[in-house]
Amino acid sequence: MVPLAASRQRPALGFSLVELMITVAIIGLFSAVVVGSMAETRRRATTRLAAQELLGYLDAVRRSAMASALECRVSYTAPANFSVIEHHTSTTAGQLGLDRCARAFNGGSDGLNLAQSIASATSLHVVAPGSDLLLTPLGTVANNQTMIYYISIEGSSLERCIAVLAPVGFIRSGQRFYAGDSNTADCDYVAGY
Questions:
Q1: pTM greater than 0.85
Q2: What is the DSSP pairing of strand 159-164 with strand 71-77?
Q3: Model confidence over 54-86: pLDDT tens digits?
Q4: How far, CA to CA in Å, does 49 sit from each of 10, 55, 120, 123, 124?
Q5: Fold annotation for 17-188
Q6: ∠189-192-193 over CA atoms, to 5°?
Q7: Which of 38, 84, 131, 155 has the most Cβ atoms closer than 10 angstroms to its Cβ?
């Protein structure tokens, strides 16, 4: 006869290997979703930051043209460089206002390199109009053409638009979207982005 105390088995303490593996798999799945979501959020934030940087730069050039009473030309070179070139209708105006337009803002810097000013924006894409932007001393667009700049980051679904509206020179920021299944895109400047 076996004593009663010896026949009782103690219950197992802790978790089984299968339970631990299931828990680790669930945590890994949630981590993968969160990391992927955070990467897209970071790309979107970088796109917004680049658009705000360009918007501020164009506004500073516009204000500089008004303050210096000179026409200012904004030139774009790929991949993401903007520079201000003073535009003069006469050589006398050019000699009197030497570099006032280009140096009147941003602590004397006359250029903007978006890829360099935005950290880790190596895959920044800017699509600019074919011609330079010419701003008059009244803050208006001299070439009577609305200039639209498109900004995006590789791998992001967000595209931003910066428009300088002709002839008044208002600068608007918006989000680019594609209508339906077509390849045509338009910018929404109505909502605050």
A1: no
A2: unpaired
A3: 888 888 888 888 887 888 888 887 776 777 765
A4: 62, 10, 12, 14, 11
A5: minor pseudopilin epsh fold (3.55.40)
A6: 90
A7: 84
